[in-house]
Design a protein that fits this description.
The radius of gyration is 25 Å and the shape is globular. The two termini are 35 Å apart. The chain is α+β, with helices and mostly antiparallel strands. Strands 1, 2, 3, 4, 5 and 6 form a 6-stranded mixed beta sheet that branches. Strands 9-10-11 form a 3-stranded antiparallel beta sheet, with no helix packed on it. About 3% of the residues have low confidence. Strand 3 and strand 4 form a beta hairpin. Helix content is 43%, strand content 14%. It folds into 4 domains: 70 residues, no CATH class; 189 residues, Ribonuclease H-like superfamily/Ribonuclease H (Nucleotidyltransferase, domain 5); 78 residues, no CATH class; 76 residues, no CATH class.
């Protein structure tokens, strides 16, 4: 209640009720306006919101303010995951002592689509719904904007909105109204972020040598029962392996007993193997010599990207080639060297201590084997390792559900704080659905 003024504005709404609205918004992937409007007549919504049938709904702007402003000073992501894991443990759903780790990437709201492209897509979807209802109605609509100018597209969308608002016989049809409200929300957001061509906090990440994305990564830990036990949201350029200690610590804080970690090659770095050894935990991750930590100064800032098979420097640049050197018979003396584009290094703001002026090449080298890696290589030959490694694929089902069902493939808003809130709601929803199914 400290968030509200006692003498001005609307009366405070119940935070639990507002949170339930957000949960419904996430489950059904609709705008603030539509989730509130549906709660006006949908008895299942009213029941979930603990509203009497005749009770009036909130103003949708209250939900927007609650979503954007009221939750930013809370660690909502860990709070909600902790709650669902506690429920799963209490109900005896989580019985395993293994966690499966992986990452899923989320495109920034501003990439790869520009504001112009988003507006064109939303207006296209609106017209498509209208034509399905009345093919002849196209004669009443304004001429489409054929230029690549954002201002002209905004003008067209506003005119399209005005025409439909004046004709309630078409705009009040639920399918049309839903798409119209989504277009209105997009127009308002475009005005709010009119001067932003890129998400200031999103970064370029790599899915392979030739495939990149602009956005964020969500690092996930999941039990074998497909309950997400921990999540960490980072910018897109961050490596997967360095986040394992946080995922493990959060899972343990949430009540998980962990004796096995299952992941891909990105998680078999020297630091992770050492951490697992100290806690008597097995790591089921295929050993890759490239993930071991090099001896170069500030080497902890160079991250290995498993998809591209290359290292990424502190400035976010991907290595352009790789070469192996050292004694062939003395494997412990061999090193892999990763070379970076010198032209980028010359003008990089982080070049001090990393690039020597006038040098024709700039590389990062790592030794291939350590005692920890030798022990891991022996472990990889065991039947237990082979059996547990087959379980890693099940995390892909959760990644797919987050993206394809709950819209986690693209950020709803700008900034990592909003990304964390979107992740909190999506993961909370997925965990609840899984718990209900297993119960």
């Amino acid at each position: 209640m400290t968030k509200y003024c006692h003498t001005n504005g609307r009366n405070a709404e119940s935070p639990i009720k507002m949170f339930k609205y957000l949960l419904l918004k996430t489950i059904y992937t609709v705008s603030d306006v539509d989730v509130v409007e549906r709660s006006r007549y949908d008895m299942s919504f009213k029941y979930f919101l603990e509203m009497a049938p005749e009770e009036d709904v909130i103003n949708s702007s209250s939900l927007t303010k609650f979503r954007k402003l009221r939750l930013k000073d809370m660690d909502l992501l860990n709070l909600l995951i902790n709650k669902t894991v506690s429920i799963a443990l209490e109900k005896g759903i989580i019985k395993s002592k293994s966690i499966i780790v992986d990452t899923t990437h989320t495109h920034s709201r501003s990439n790869p689509y520009t504001a112009l492209e988003v507006l064109k897509e939303r207006s296209k979807l609106l017209r498509k719904v209208i034509y399905q209802i009345d093919e002849q109605y196209r004669e009443n609509l304004p001429d489409q904007n054929e230029s690549g100018d954002l201002d002209q597209e905004l003008t067209y969308c506003r005119e399209l909105q005005r025409v439909l608002d004046q004709d309630q016989s078409i705009s009040e049809i639920p399918a049309v109204k839903e798409k119209l409200n989504l277009l209105k929300e997009t127009i308002d957001d475009t005005k709010e972020y009119y001067l932003l061509s890129k998400d200031d906090e999103a970064r370029l990440g790599y899915k392979s040598v030739d495939s990149s994305f602009f956005g964020y990564k969500t690092h996930l830990a999941m039990s074998e029962e497909r309950i997400i036990t921990a999540a960490v949201v980072t910018t897109g350029e961050k490596g997967d392996g360095p986040e394992l200690p946080r995922l493990l610590a959060i899972s343990q804080q949430n009540g998980m007993e962990v004796d096995t970690i299952i992941g891909d090659a990105a998680y078999s770095g020297k630091d992770n193997l050492q951490l697992a050894k100290e806690q008597n935990i097995d790591i089921i991750a295929k050993l890759n010599p490239a993930v071991s930590q090099g001896c170069r100064k500030q080497g902890e800032h160079f991250h290995y990207n498993k998809d591209a098979g290359m290292f990424v420097c502190p400035a976010g640049h991907l290595a352009i080639k790789k070469a192996r050197g050292g004694k062939k018979n003395g494997v412990s003396n061999q090193v892999d060297s990763y070379f970076f584009d010198v032209e980028k290094c010359k003008v990089c703001p982080l070049r001090e201590g990393c690039y020597k002026e006038g040098a024709r090449t700039n590389s990062y080298s790592i030794s291939i084997k350590s005692d920890l890696h030798k022990d891991q290589m022996a472990f990889q030959e065991s039947d237990y390792y082979r059996r547990k490694s087959k379980e890693r694929y099940i995390i892909e089902a959760n990644n797919s559900e987050l993206k394809n069902v709950h819209g986690y493939g693209r950020a709803d808003s700008y900034g990592i704080e909003n990304m964390e809130m979107q992740g909190a709601m999506a993961i909370f929803t997925v965990n609840l659905k899984r718990i209900l199914k297993l119960i």
